[in-house]
Specification:
The protein is built from 1 helix and 8 strands; from the N terminus they run αββββββββ. Strands 1, 2, 5 and 8 form a 4-stranded mixed beta sheet that branches. Strands 4-3-6-7 form a 4-stranded antiparallel beta sheet, with no helix packed on it.
């Protein structure tokens, strides 16, 4: 009869596998969830038209104007807000977001006609640097 402390190779192997599963489960379940990595999204907010009639060639005095102080919201497809930004004095903004799809909305700005239409964006590993939201001045 084998001694009580003797363990067969099959039982020892099974015990190692069970121990590995327990450790792996604890590591996967015991580590707090880290925030997903973020990338930068930058762009500008402008208002147009500036002149009631477009001219050819375009008149530089009628180019869209930057909108400073515009509040922007970035929401995921479920409507959860994941980021906000406010444009600076030259109408530019910068926000850090996890990669994904978002709807960008702008709040009403005094002196402009309403808000820009919501814009859906896809943020990839390189971020975005050419996002432009356009408010309507109401000039016709």
């Amino acid at each position: 009869m084998p001694e009580a402390s003797a363990i067969s190779p099959t039982a020892r192997s099974a015990g190692v596998r069970i121990g590995a599963v327990i450790v792996a489960t604890c590591v996967a379940g015991c580590v707090p969830n880290a925030d997903p990595p973020t990338v930068e999204v930058s762009g500008a907010v402008v208002a147009s038209p500036i002149c009631p009639v477009e001219r050819q060639p375009p008149d530089p005095d009628c180019a869209p104007r930057p909108v400073s102080g515009a509040s922007l919201t970035f929401a995921d497809p479920d409507g959860e807000v994941v980021g906000t930004a406010v444009t600076d004095e030259v109408g530019e903004f910068l926000v850090s977001l996890p990669m994904g799809t978002y709807v960008v909305t702008g709040e009403r700005v005094e002196g402009l006609a309403g808000e820009p239409p919501p814009m859906e964006i896809d943020v990839g590993p390189a971020g975005m640097t050419d996002l432009v939201l356009e408010y309507d001045t109401g000039i016709r």
